[in-house]
Amino acid sequence: MELPDEAATEAFGAALAPLVQAAADSGLVIWLSGDLGAGKTTTTRGLLRALGHTGSVKSPTYSLLEPYVVSRIALYHFDFYRFNHPDEFLEAGLDEYFSGAGICLVEWADKALPYVPQPDIDIQLRVAGSGRVASVQACSERGRACLSHSALRRT
């Protein structure tokens, strides 16, 4: 899916809102993968805005985690870019967030492997000229079920 500008990247994130709403009771792990500046936080901002969040949405690069509760849905936005070793995931006690019904949006998941759970949905973002390109892949039965009723399934 081509995303020619920031507005298109936010709209892509907004298209994830029905997936998140459908999985709100069972939880969902979404990996947001891509280089610096590829649109991971912009995608998250679009998702949160579509769910009704009106506050700021910032990258959790320094805080590791930005929690949100929107429309009674718990969303946890993680960024493991600054990890020097995967054990930091366990040392920070972040594993507890992945055991409930929350929606976990994870940037730089590879830096927390093997401890971070595998994704239900993997979103790859890459810079392409002045825009971005996104691809979406279901990686679990839960992810396939979410995508089967989504406009994103064609990506």
Topology of this structure?
Elements: E1 2-3, H1 6-14, H2 17-22, E2 28-33, H3 40-51, E3 65-70, E4 73-79, H4 87-91, E5 103-107, E6 121-128, E7 131-138, H5 141-148
Parallel strand pairs: 2-5, 2-6, 4-5
Antiparallel strand pairs: 1-7, 3-4, 6-7
Helix pairs in contact: 1-3
CATH hierarchy, class: Alpha Beta
User: Into which percentage range does the β-strand content fall?
Assistant: 25-35%
Structural class: alpha/beta
- What is the fold named in CATH at topology level? Rossmann fold
Put simply, the count of helices is: 5
Low-confidence stretches: none
Widest β-sheet, arrangement of strands? 1-7-6-2-5-4-3
Number of structural units classed as domains: 1
Q: Percent range for helical residues?
A: 25-40%
Can you name the CATH architecture?
A: 3-Layer(aba) Sandwich
Compute the average pLDDT. Answer: 90
Shape: globular
Could you state the CATH homologous superfamily? P-loop containing nucleotide triphosphate hydrolases
Q: What's the N-to-C terminus distance?
A: 6 Å
From N to C, what is the helix and strand string? EHHEHEEHEEEH
Keywords: ATP-binding, Cytoplasm, Magnesium, Metal-binding, Nucleotide-binding, tRNA processing
Main location: cytoplasm
Family: Belongs to the TsaE family.
Subcellular location: Cytoplasm
